[in-house]
Amino acid sequence: MRILILSYLVLLSAITALAQGKVEISGADKLEEKIKQKVEETDTTQISGYRIQIYFGHNRNEALAVESKFKSYFSEWSSECYVVYYEPNWRVRVGNYYSKIDAQPMMKELQKEFDNVFLIRDKITLPVLR
């Protein structure tokens, strides 16, 4: 919002200066620096999507055991296994799915090996484009 107001003031100053025949913008360097900083702060590697949660609990060792079990059963998916801690619980989540229907086949496979498998809305990692 500050950038928008600052941009408006710069534009207004420019229009006023044009009416006088000479344009001089002061503070443009600061504006460019703020824009560059905002672009760097924005994370463009994650979007809203879905993951399958296969563990939820207080015990870190159990979470790591579930992660290990998942990676041994589904080694081709091991790079998409995430152990996360949101106080006071540990969660093990797998996959990066754009929609619920994309996750259904994997959910059926996971339900054979794990209890309490369910789909959750989460930030997912964008796939690498080749």
Task: List the main descriptive attributes of the protein structure presented here.
130 residues, alpha+beta, Alpha-Beta Plaits, four-stranded antiparallel sheet, elongated
Q: Could you outline the blueprint of secondary structure elements for this entry?
A:
Layout: H1 2-20, H2 28-41, E1 46-57, H3 60-73, E2 81-86, E3 89-97, H4 100-113, E4 118-125
Antiparallel strand pairs: 1-3, 1-4, 2-3
Task: Summarize this entry quickly.
Helices cover 47% and strands 27% of the residues. The protein is an alpha+beta fold and 130 residues long.
Counting DSSP H or I runs of 4 or more residues, the number of helices is 4
The residue-averaged pLDDT reads 83
Using the coordinates shown, work out and report the CATH topology of the largest domain. Alpha-Beta Plaits
Uncertain segments are: none
The major pleated sheet works out as: 4 strands, antiparallel
The domain tally reads 2
Per DSSP, what share of the residues sits in E-state strands of 2 or more residues?
25-35%
Explain this structure.
With 130 residues, the chain is of the alpha+beta class. The protein has 2 domains: 2-41, no CATH class; 46-125, Sporulation related repeat (Alpha-Beta Plaits, 2-Layer Sandwich), CATH 3.30.70.1070. Helix content is 47%, strand content 27%.
